[in-house]
Amino acid sequence: MSVQPEQERASETGCWCCGGEYPEAQLVRLGSHPEVGVCLRCARWLQRRAVQRHDEQHPSPAARLRGGIQTVRDAVIRKGWHQRGTLGVVLRWIDRHLP
Predict the structure, then answer these.
(1) Helix ranges restricted to H, the chain
(2) Is 21 helix (H, G, I), strand (E, B) or coil?
(3) Are residues 16 and 39 both part of a single domain?
(4) Which one of 1, 10, 35, 66 is at 20 to 30 Å from 86 when CA atoms are compared?
């Protein structure tokens, strides 16, 4: 494994998931592939998808609860409620504190 020069690494500040440009401090690098950077927002999304996949393979009461939360989250996004003024602020705050 070779180490890239600092000047090359500095230019690699794009998120491999959404394509956005972010400072290095806002990217998560993959252990075996440090060239891959994912922004914090996409990393959170990927974490939720990983938990969802795990729940599908290992059913439990907690998994069903998280599945219900995800169903409600999907409905809120589909209806655009998360973008509505005060209601949107409250819904986004709740979302940050749910699994």
Answers:
(1) 6-11, 40-57, 61-79, 85-96
(2) strand
(3) yes
(4) 66
Using the 8-state DSSP alphabet, how is residue 26 labeled? G
* Domain identity same for 14 and 25: yes
The CA distances from residue 11 to 3, 20, 23, 55, in Å, are 15, 13, 10, 37
Residues 23-75: pLDDT tens digits?
999 999 998 999 999 999 999 999 989 999 999 999 999 999 999 988 998 89
Cβ proximity of 99 and 69 under 8 Å: yes
User: Is 65 inside any structural domain?
Assistant: yes
Overall pTM surpassing 0.70 (yes/no):
no
Asked if 22 contacts 39 with a C-beta cutoff of 8 angstroms, the reply is: yes
Determine the Cα–Cα distance for residues 15 and 7; give it in Å rounded to an integer: 18
